[in-house]
Amino acid sequence: MVQIGGVERWRGGRDRRxxxxxxxxxxxxxxxxxxxxxxxxxxxxxxxxxPRPDAKSWRVAFVVSLGICLLGSIDAxxxxxxxxxxxxxxxxxxxxxxxxxxxxELLRLNRTGRKAIMRVGSVLMLPPTLTNRPLFATPGRLGRxxxxxxxxxxxxxxxxxxxxxxxxxxxxxxxxxxxxxxxxAGVRTxxxxxxxxxxxxxxxxxxxxxxxxxxxxxxxSLTRTRITQLALQQTNPSAAPADGAVQSxxxxxxxxxxxxxxxSDVETAWLRTVLHRLSRRGLVHAVEEFGExxxxxxxxxxxxxxxxxxxxxxxLSGC
Length: 319
Fold this sequence. Notes:
It is a single chain. The protein is α+β, with helices and mostly antiparallel strands. The chain has 10 helices and 11 strands. It folds into 3 domains: 1-45, no CATH class; 82-127, LysM domain (Membrane-bound Lytic Murein Transglycosylase D, Chain A, Roll), CATH 3.10.350; 141-310, Muramoyl-pentapeptide Carboxypeptidase, domain 2, CATH 3.30.1380. Helices cover 34% and strands 13% of the residues. Strands 6-8-9-11-10 form a 5-stranded mixed β-sheet. The chain has a two-stranded antiparallel ribbon with strand order 1-2. Strands 3-4 form a two-stranded antiparallel ribbon. 34% of the residues are buried.
């Protein structure tokens, strides 16, 4: 084991192809140079650190997911879509009451004839349902989040120099200040970074939200260093600690805050519905804060793997 730039590296042998293999114990994070990422087969951190897919492939994947079970239009209720895969013996008359809707509504949502939508294997879009149940914090929440970050092998950012090293290595990626579907407010440029899977989550969530409401999401916090977290505690007594077993997951670059200011009741319910769903799947830890109204979301490393298998899961409901 050697120390390079304050980060431990473990030496290993070579695999059958002669490719160098570097291994590390669970819980330790390895900092790598971006041009040598592909050479280290045995490392855990960070298989999603490469630049995001090109715009064309991302659009294709997103359109495919939309074609399966995303919202057909804003008129469909501006909520996360649900879907039903047609099985042998299914009829519209039987499906409609099961989901508390009508045959006419199913035909309207799916915009096609009865025969076409009732082919075995086809996917019916169902009326969206929203929950207005807040994401209240539960006892031990900070400890669970911190333990999850530890289990994912994520280092905490001590200072700006460490953040810069992680960005150069690809372990943190830049978040654009302004896009068509979201914008970042109140975050200094050098801290406008996050783990690669957090950026994927932000892009998915914002694109789905924008499709439903034609509004942009407002992102108010991303990665923090220990120094910035200590400063935040001086002005916000409810801020998570910068040290110890319950330190903020913003220090790991794995959390994002989405502002609730200026959201309508329906928009807030939409976000609650999506975040409840992703929380149940173990893809995020999400909680609402009401003093400075926002959703705090810690995104799990597995979110990126999940989206590679299923496209955007933000609006999927298990079909």
